Amino acid sequence: MTRLLLIITCIVAGASSAVAQAPGLRAGAYAQDVTPKKFPISVNGSFNDRQAVAAHDPLHARCLVLESQGTKVAVVVVDSCMIPRELLDAAKALAEKSTQIPARNILISATHTHSAPTVAGVFQSEPDKDYVKFLTHAIAEGIEKANTRLAPAKLAWGVADEPHQVFNRRWRMKAGVKNLDPFGRDTDQVKMNPPRMSPDLLEPAGPTDPAVTVLSIRTADDKPLALFANYSLHYVGDMPPLSADYFGVFADVIATKLQASNEFVAMLSNGTSGDVNNINFKAETPKTKPGERSRVVAEAVAAAAMKAIDKKDHTPQATLNSATQEIELGVRKPTAEEIQRAKTILAKAQGRELRGAEEVYARETVLLKDYPDRVRVPLQVLQVGDAAVVAIPCETFAEIGLSIKKKSPFATTCVVSLANGYFGYLPTPQQHQLGGYETWRARSSFLEVEASTKIEQTILGLLRQLHAEK
């Protein structure tokens, strides 16, 4: 009898030990304010530099840290137009030091609001050095604070469509329509943001992705803790700088819909929207007040997000994993003749602000001549439960994201653009042939023509790798 009791005791103790060694999911979230303290400040998002003298609404780095079975990952969405790799690598290094979350397990993306401080030089906007330093430390601090909030949690993934807020902005034009590029050529077959209701419009040059993909995080006692969403819309742009655009409005709206506490953190990442915006080119321009359109879009996307997670079972168990790979890609460099043409154009404009696409792209041409011939581009996939989060450091076209989702071995996959760096637009080779703004060589579009093919192949390899390890 005594021996039997001893055996039973050992079995129970072993079971208890196994439970202790395999804890469930923990999560922590924090919205770090990244609004600049000093004004005026340069704003990204236009051919000409703009100077903001105040903040219309606050900017944030919204941080989520997850831990399961000894593995930690962090996902951060920053209210910024685009963020260079050097800044994000520095922020990850600081966060790794303070939290022990490996840098390879940290995904940081920009929302692509066109009303945030410049941290990546594009067109006539150049980085504010003080803000770059401030943002680097603020992102790391946000991850650290989220990490300190780790507590037992459970999660669920869901997807719902919102097709009414996304429109492909690249249009095929009727034959014979003059469509000049800034390099003196008329070979473009498509026009970005053409005149609304123009009789010269034929059809959009590509698709849209209507999916709102959602990761819902709840506390152990079933209260909203955080929500990560992904939607393929460029931005809305109806609020003055500085502004988080509709991404910030979404965070507020979803918190209200969930009746969440003040510590709840919602974040909306930018999907594959390099060729997608919120303009219906077949309809008249609606008359709206500043911020009204952002509210309409945010409400619609938030409604889809709520539908995506409605009645979803949240699980306290989730596998976390990460796979990363750098690939080397060529840079489209200007020829000697193109550089000379650009210098001639700039000489005529000397002493004043550049005006028009021809002058702005002449400056971009001269700057690109000093770029390296090849660049190393970081790619990443995070596994969170039975879903995958893909990170591409470009303004990725919608058809690329749709292709990755279709071929992914995971039950749910979302693609985050402008993640872990900034390497310009990412059209497909076929879209390069059509031409248009997104293909015009500049610091906003410089990767080789076959870049999307090589990136997609690498991403699919990482997805298969993680799926095999499940």
Outline of the structure:
With 470 residues, this protein is α+β, with helices and mostly antiparallel strands. Helices cover 31% and strands 26% of the residues.
Overview of the molecule:
This protein has helices at residues 2-21, 85-99, 129-148, 245-257, 292-309, 336-348, 356-368, 398-407, 429-434, 451-469, and strands at 26-33, 41-43, 50-52, 60-68, 71-78, 106-110, 151-161, 167-168, 170-173, 190-192, 201-204, 211-219, 224-231, 265-270, 276-277, 320-330, 374-384, 387-391, 395-396, 412-416, 425-426. It has 470 residues and is of the alpha+beta class. The protein folds into two domains: 26-168 and 203-328 and 372-469, no CATH class; 334-368, no CATH class. It has an eight-stranded mixed sheet with strand order 6-5-4-1-7-12-13-14. A four-stranded mixed sheet has the order 16-17-18-20, with helices on one face. Strand 17 (374-384) and strand 18 form a beta hairpin. Helix 8 (398-407) packs parallel to helix 10. The longest helix is centred in the N-terminal third of the chain and has 20 residues, at 2-21. The radius of gyration is 23 Å and the shape is globular. The two termini are 43 Å apart. The model is unreliable at 1-22 (pLDDT under 50).
